[in-house]
Amino acid sequence: DMLDPERLIQCPLVKHHWIRARRFPYHLVKCKESNPEIAKKLATCPFNARHLVPRADLSDHIMKCNDKAFVEPDVVRQSSESSQEQLNNGSTWQAPPSAEDWET
């Protein structure tokens, strides 16, 4: 069960470290401090700070990250709400006239 706080998770920094899920965030902080050379080679996922992946693999991880589904609907919803608010507010802003004449 992914929500089990007692399940063991392998540390992405030191592969022989196995940590209980409930202690994992704390372990990552300490393990990064203890292993700065390894930590420099890893990037943090923007959707879940517990995901540390090799820097070269970050874009691939982002495309496949399961936690992206939790964040994206909120971003899309906020974006559409913001657009709807602008329409409802009836913004009358117009760009100022330009002195440039691209035809000449």
TrEMBL record:
Alphabetic keyword roster: Metal-binding, Zinc, Zinc-finger
InterPro entries, alphabetized: TRM13/UPF0224_CHHC_Znf_dom (IPR022776), UPF0224_FAM112_RNA_Proc (IPR051591), Znf_C2H2_sf (IPR036236)
GO molecular function: zinc ion binding
Signal peptide residue numbers: none
Positions of the UniProt region annotated as Disordered: 76-104
Alphabetical list of SUPFAM superfamilies matching this protein: beta-beta-alpha zinc fingers
Domain CHHC U11-48K-type: 8-35, 42-69
Name of this protein: GTSF1 factor
Annotated source species: Nesospiza acunhae
